[in-house]
Specification:
heterodimer, A: alpha/beta, Rossmann fold, six-stranded mixed beta sheet, four-stranded antiparallel beta sheet, 10 strands, B: alpha+beta, Alpha-Beta Plaits, 2 domains, about 5% strand
């Protein structure tokens, strides 16, 4: 479970060469986002995230991390600039096309967004019903994904009966059940204690090792230090630094 | 495969929702039932009124008084002509018959005079299709010009009044129906919106994991239609109760209203069911629209 912690340096170096050749799955060119007449939330963002990459998005609260993630799965549209997901310009995507984009993007939130009155299994299966998967397949795939996050034995419980870490794993299972190319996580460990945080992050590392591109927004410096991934730092809506692990964490603690 | 999976998913979701939050759905179904009962009752009352007007108008008669020298042949010709014109039933009344009728109403009349002063006449029962005052007036005017005819009498005022009454009743019915309909749409949409509001979290998550608007909407539409049908079922039950149990009691109580008993026809049942389903559908379409924008 902790393999990406054990050999961060080697993986990073090996990875770097690979990423350079990979086609980027998420790209932003001069992206700005403003709401009404308020000062813009994001200003002139340029970024490249390659297929199979694991990226931290960090910065203080209100820096625009959530908004930036929202631009990727089109919960918001960019006011200016271009957002490309898997080579497609999503700014030009019509509203009717949004559902199909989202089927390729798993999203994980700090506040889980689970249905409290449906079983864990149903919560995961929810994402499969949406794409019209037959019932038996839904059951089988949901169980398999729950096994992946280590919750097969809790499939029939209701989410409120689970611990925070377990609930977050259910959310990850729901995000993964459709085999998305990209997984976006907005403060996935924000509500969890340190032990559970490690549990969730290790799970995300595993998922990443299977080839899923992962973007994690967090303001937790210890995470960034521990996992040594490429880190994009937002401040007041601008991308101020692009650092690797330890240095980024250092900057965070200092700044 | 996918279609079957989706359809069964929609149906299950709709039923599950009815099952999971019964209170809100009971409210929706009941408000629909009340409205549909109102609709059904209005229809029953309207058809009762129509029948009443019809039965009253059935008594409207055209009476043609003939000149004293008219021959049997003329009378027979006139009967045929009148029956053709009015599509009604014409009967010849001889002076003797007329006097006998009068004697029955006013005993002792016969003794007043040795001669029978009453003329030959022809009575025409006017069928409903020719009930309009305008048409009757036309016939009366034409018949009056015939040589053998002395005078024509028909209940012009009565026909006019009946027509006015029927028109007023229809208009009132239409206005009431319009008001009821408007109220129902508002109530149903509001109730369904409440039901959907209870599930906004579910909708949000559905959209997050890539559900199309159509996919989100479908179970709500099924739910709305089901609610409408349930409401219609209750309304029909109430209407049947009213016509089969309530009406006879009312007749027994008042003792005078021994008119034709009202009935819930198959056609009315169909109308109520169709109206219920479409009200539920329209209500849920309006209600769900707001929640799909995000």
């Amino acid at each position: 479970m902790t393999m990406c912690v054990i050999t961060p340096e080697s993986r990073r170096r090996r990875g770097k060469g690979r990423w350079a050749k990979q086609r980027p799955v998420i790209q932003m060119f001069h992206v700005s986002k403003s709401f009404g007449n308020d000062p813009p939330t994001l200003v002139d963002i340029n970024l490249d995230i390659a297929k199979g990459e694991f990226v931290f998005l960090t910065g203080p609260s209100g820096a625009g991390k959530t908004t930036l993630l929202k631009l990727i799965f089109l919960a918001e549209r960019a006011s200016k600039g271009q957002v490309l997901v898997a080579g497609r310009n999503v700014a030009r995507l019509r509203d009717s096309g949004i559902p199909y984009l989202r089927r390729n993007i798993g999203v994980v939130f700090q506040d889980f967004k689970l249905l409290p009155r449906r079983s864990v299994l149903d919560n995961v299966g929810f994402a499969l019903h949406v794409v019209g998967t037959p019932r038996e397949v839904v059951r089988e795939k949901s169980l398999r994904t729950l096994k992946l996050v280590g919750l097969a034995n809790k499939a029939h419980l209701l989410p409120p009966k689970l611990s925070g870490g377990e609930q977050q794993r259910v959310v990850i299972a729901r995000a993964l059940v459709n085999d998305p190319a990209i997984l976006l996580a907005d403060e996935p460990t924000g509500n969890l204690d340190p032990a559970l945080t490690v549990e969730i992050m290790d799970l995300l590392c595993d998922v990443n090792a299977r080839g899923t591109t992962i973007v994690v927004a967090t303001h937790d410096a210890t995470l960034i230090q521990r996992y040594q991934k490429r880190t994009l730092r937002l401040e007041q809506g601008t991308l101020v630094a692009e650092e690797k692990g330890a240095r980024a964490a250092q900057l965070m603690v200092q700044g | 495969m996918s279609l079957v999976a989706k359809t069964s998913y929609f149906a299950r979701t709709a039923l599950e929702s009815l099952w999971r939050s019964p209170f809100i759905h009971v409210v929706a179904v009941l408000s629909l039932a009340v409205a549909l009962t109102g609709f059904g009752a209005a229809r029953v009352v309207a058809s009762q009124l129509d029948r009443l007007v019809e039965s009253l108008s059935g008594e409207v008669e055209l009476t043609v008084y003939l000149k004293a020298d008219s021959s049997d042949e003329t009378r027979a010709q006139l009967v045929t002509a009148l029956e053709q014109r009015t599509h009604g039933k014409a009967t010849i009344v001889s002076p003797e018959q007329a006097l006998a009728r009068l004697e029955a109403q006013v005993p002792g009349v016969r003794a007043l005079s040795k001669d029978n002063p009453l003329p030959w006449s022809i009575e025409v029962a006017v069928p409903p299709s020719a009930r309009q005052a305008q048409a009757l007036r036309e016939v009366a005017r034409k018949v009056e010009q015939l040589e053998a005819v002395e005078a024509v009498d028909f209940g012009e005022a009565a026909v006019d009044r009946l027509e006015g009454l029927a028109f007023a009743l229809r208009l009132a019915g239409l206005v009431v129906f319009g008001l009821v309909f408007l109220t129902v749409v508002v109530v149903v949409a509001a109730t369904l919106q409440l039901a959907i509001y209870a599930r906004r979290e579910e909708i949000e998550i559905q959209k997050l994991v890539g559900a199309t608007n159509r996919f989100v909407r479908a179970p709500f539409l099924i739910e709305g239609a089901l609610q409408g049908l349930l409401g219609a079922l209750i309304a029909l039950g109430l209407l049947l109760l009213a016509t089969h149990v309530g009406w006879p009691r009312l007749v027994a109580l008042l003792g005078v209203l021994d008119a034709v008993a009202p009935a819930v026809t198959l056609r009315l049942a169909g109308e109520v069911a169709a109206l219920g389903a479409s009200l539920g559908l329209v209500g849920s379409v309006l209600a769900v629209r707001r929640f799909l924008r995000a």
